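In the current project phase, the collection of sequences with tokenised folds has grown. A representative record is quoted in full directly below:
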Amino acid sequence: MSRRIEHSSKYTVPVAKVHEAVTSEQYWRDRIAAVGGPGATIDELTVRDETVAVTMSQVIPAEHLPSMVSNFIKGDIVIKRSETIAPLNGGTATGTFSAHVDGVPARIEGTQVLSGDDTGCTLSATGEVEVKIPIFGGKIESAIVDEVTRLIEAEQDFTRDWIAK
């Protein structure tokens, strides 16, 4: 069984401006520093022809894990995340996102779509979380969906602020 993730964020700037930001190397370096948490790193970053592919690691200290998660995972966890964004094509750019923790039977995968025009745009993320742990998997999935949604919101708030500066 899996749980869906659905989130969208509106921007009051042209789609080209948001795309320019999210395909900038400096944007990703600033974002990981601002909202990545302690010990967060960019492991790989490729920006080429208005396309970006980034892999990052984020650490969640054991003391910040919900008890239902810390029962299965001992110590801090390192989440490996990947995101891609393609070039704009007719006011739309597509991409992917994923995350996993080594040794944990869980996955997060999805797509993202940036679309709009010269007056504003929307970045939508749709995906799913699946945790293959008998009995407790569904509860852990729900907790992960809540955390991922909060993280997406923080990253999108960062994006608004970064573009404004």
Q: What stands out?
A: Helices lie at 15-22, 25-35, 67-70, 137-164. The beta strands are 3-11, 41-48, 51-60, 77-85, 92-100, 106-116, 121-131. The chain has a mean pLDDT of 89. The chain has one domain: 3-164.
